[in-house]
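Supplementary notes for students who missed Thursday's class. We covered one full example, reproduced here. Read the sequence, then the structure, then the short commentary at the end.
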Amino acid sequence: MSIDFSLGEEADAIAQTLKRFARDQAGGAVVPCARFSPDLWRKLCGLEIFSLTGAKEIVAVMEALGKTNFPGPLATTFAAAQLFEGDDRARIVSGEMLVAMGELHGDGLFPWAAIAQRFVWCERDRAFAARAISIEPVETLGCEPWGKVRLERESEFRHAGRALAIADIALGAYLAQAGRYLVEAASEHAKTRTQFGRPIGDYQAVAHALARCATELAAAAALTRVAAHSFDAERKNCRVTSAAAKVSAGKAANSASQVVHQVFGAFGVTEEGPVFPVARRIRQLTLTPGADATARAHLLEHVGLIRSESV
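Structure (token representation):
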């Protein structure tokens, strides 16, 4: 029996629209949309993508944006659109208001805090509206406006688990395609870069490493789509599959970022090159403090290695 990983005609149409949009914004750059700007963010929000509530449509959006290295708090905004209601939600999806969301750890480092108007403090599968008492801007690897914050909890959101599942699915879709971009760029480079009179792609050390990355990324992308189908069908295990998709995609994308740097050599770590800005964003997204803690806890609980009370 075959498994249908398709997202549907509507989702495919959304993806094509996003690809054209990203291409138009690229302006001929080798790596499109490398840096965040408020103007670019408002243009993206003008497409009304953050009004989408179906996981399959959200995956279509994030796959297209991941392949083009599009910047911004994408997964966070999809989750925030699930959490907030009324005028706040309308301002978020239109790009008028930006939300910072994450887990708060010892040093207070928080994604997108330097430019956010609203804050969501997450703890496992709970989420709280929070007020920022202080914000210290911090420069980051991915050139994103983060900050060290002190937050004060306010009200708790209902149905936070669904919003956080959407965030995991969205991030997994983005990372799998960002990693795929890296592998495709490295594969093309390996066809033309010669060493000892042969393309480096002829050597097993290069070819096998890229093939492994491509396989891992394809599996992660498929798992992300499975999670989207599970979410939309409201299956009981959708929180587990969304966690698995995020962890799988993060691991595969990180592995790809390491391999492609080796394939490109010194050119792989130049900012004007075709892979460094993408690899940098992958590292930024996967090394967020506590990024995988909740997702991994769900997976460990599912296989019985920890008790559900600890998730």
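Commentary. Residues 84 and 157 are 8 Å apart (CA to CA). The chain is about 55% helix and 15% strand. If anything here is unclear, bring it to office hours.
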